[in-house]
Amino acid sequence: MASAAEKRFLSDYASALGDDQAALFVGAGVSQAAGYPSWRDLLADIGEELSVRSKDIQDLAALAQWSIQESGSRNRVRDVIRREIGPNRPLTATNRILARLPTRSYWTTNYDKLIERSFDEISRPYDVISSAADLSTRASPGAARIFKMHGTVDQLADVVISTDDYELFRKSRGPFLPLLQAQMTSMSMLFVGMSLTDPNVKHVLALIRESFSDNPPDHFALVKPPRASDFDDRAEFASRLRQHELWARDLRRYGLTAVELDDYAEIPNLLNALERQVALQRVWISGSWPVENFGDDGSKAYAVARGIGDAMGRSGLKLIHGLGLVVGSAALTGFLEALQDSGGWDLDRRLLTRPFPQPLGADQPDRQKWTALRKELARLAGVAVFIGGVKFSDGRAMVAEGVQEEYRLAKAAGAYLLPIGATGGAAAKIAHELIGSDIPSRGKAAQRPSNEELKALADMDASHSELIERAVTLIRRATHAG
Q1: Model confidence pLDDT, tens digit, residues 205-230
Q2: Alpha-carbon span 268 to 390, nearest angstrom
Q3: pLDDT tens sequence across 40-83
Q4: Count of CB atoms within 10 A of residue 22's CB?
Q5: Which CATH number fits domain 4-36+89-277: 3.40.50.720, 3.40.50.1220, 3.40.50.300, 3.30.1050.10?
Q6: Which of 93, 328, 380, 456 is the Cys-Cys partner for 268 at CB 3.0 to 4.6 Å?
Q7: What is the location of CATH 3.40.50.1220 in the chain?
Q8: Is the CATH number of domain 281-479 3.40.50.450?
């Protein structure tokens, strides 16, 4: 059962993501899960050279400082970082999910390039900010910004690792701190894989505490309590567990809620749940109707799609679509008209479009690319509304296979499935399949309307306005929007 902290995280941080008011801070734990060494392991060889065991040292920055002092240069430390951090390790599920989250502010103290590579994998644009000078550069349009506070493996000359580096941080990298403070003041930050012991992060937390002593901004940290299996001595385990409990409570002074996990392997599942929670504010209107065979049935599909699009615009929900014939343009028209009535200032935030590239003349469409686009739409959608889905062959109406594929992908992604069966085509076929199915229709796990509600949406005698009203009621219930 989810804890109170986890429920609050899934609700509040998902809301911040949806409102473009969220940021991420990725710590060493995420890199270790990908196979990179911990800081302690990274400096183990250097410790041996100094006749000091790294596992006995609490201040590892001092160990790096001693190496630099004894050797007279930073070359040995840089060589270790290049050897251990330079090679690319396989991306993890956590890396991939973090890259997909709808935020443009990524912070990290890690040197590796896991974040950049996870962005590259999905062709997401980004700017790397790894020095104070980079902060003054203009952001690339549409790009996320990856703030590498301690530098990057590509530029080892100025990475932060020694005592000197930390003590002189405000002189060499000072501009990072007010920006981090500003984002933690105005946005909700999620810390993943962070111990929260970094001196510069603690400094910013102290500033937040100083400025907002009574009501600090809300932030979250995914943490793992000590486990008995990690200790040989029961008394030591009890002591460490008690320390963790006191530490987690103390985080509340800074507005930080500790979301506890039994194992870091649970992070991908929790982040998947977060993605689905964010998706609940997005409605995908899937469907099509051939323009050359419009008729009364096409008019019905158009009117219903336009009416639902209008309701989505007025309810504050987000519309995602791939510009399907007739249905897509109708939903978009209704949505834009509703936004226009309210000024339309948040159009860029509330409209997600993935147009399907159309072939010219006798050329055939790129089916593989279309399927990839449909998978993306399904992943983004919390609710999938199916309207029409018809094509004509030799003068006969047939079910559009593309809408059927979108239904299968939306079902696999966990979207709430809402076919308007009365609009015919694929929507009618989907409604027939869902009625009486074992897909849950009640409670938090509901992925479809009840049998009676599906039948009401498939009522051929229902008017356009009745179908729209029934569908909108179900959408609001599924998304908790009013």
Answers
A1: 888 888 887 788 899 999 888 888 88
A2: 38
A3: 888 888 888 888 887 777 788 888 899 889 888 889 889 999 99
A4: 25
A5: 3.40.50.1220
A6: 93
A7: 4-36+89-277
A8: yes
